[in-house]
Description:
The chain has 208 residues and is of the alpha+beta class. The chain has a single domain (16-20, 31-206), classed as Oxidoreductase, molybdopterin-binding domain (Sulfite Oxidase, Chain A, domain 2, Alpha-Beta Complex). The chain has helices at residues 53-58, 86-93, 116-119, 199-206; strands spanning 16-18, 39-43, 49-51, 61-65, 68-69, 74-76, 80-84, 101-106, 111-115, 125-127, 129-130, 133-134, 144-146, 159-165. The protein has a 5-stranded mixed beta sheet. A 4-stranded antiparallel beta sheet has the order 4-7-11-12. The radius of gyration is 17 Å and the shape is globular. The model is unreliable at 1-7 and 196-208 (pLDDT under 50).
Amino acid sequence: MSTPAGTPSKTPPNQKYIKQFIFYGALGIPEVDISSYRLRITGLVDRPLEFNYEQLKALPQVTVAKPTHCVTGWSVADTVWRGPSLPVLLKEAGLKPEAKWIMFTSLDGYDTPIPLEDGMVEDAVVALTLNGEPISLEMGFPARPFVPHIYFWKSAKWLTGIKLLEEYQDGYWEARGYHERGDIWEEERFKSWGKHERHSVIKRALGL
């Protein structure tokens, strides 16, 4: 069997490359009024930030040309995401020392967390474009986070909120058994899989 052009030589465990995205919409596709759209960075920060779409486009943009990996087992090799740097935005907001988790929230009510350390990697981005074009509505227009080493369900479509938390909280799929972190190389698909464990779970197990 042939593999799609551009397939990387190293593939995360139990992933297979396909040519095109498979679309999911757990809560449906919302209507987006771009004139009233806002992305807010809140929670454990010194300076809460708010951006409209034009302001996001006017920020310095970074390009992340890396494959996209879905927790269901498919991957797309030739994906180029571009938008403001997530770690730069977080630093601009001024992270409080107790901040340990990021909760992404969406226009449709969807939410999903990642550890702060994963959001601070150099190639984490608030993506506005995919392969040179604005992200389509089906794919999450106007913005979605992309962290290459984290499964794609953590890339919340129609992103409206980035909230910094001290303690872990379940998001939509995490409440249904999906992993707290979702690292592709550790194959952290579900909460019983992978090596990453949050401190709050360990503390509860020890009765602390």
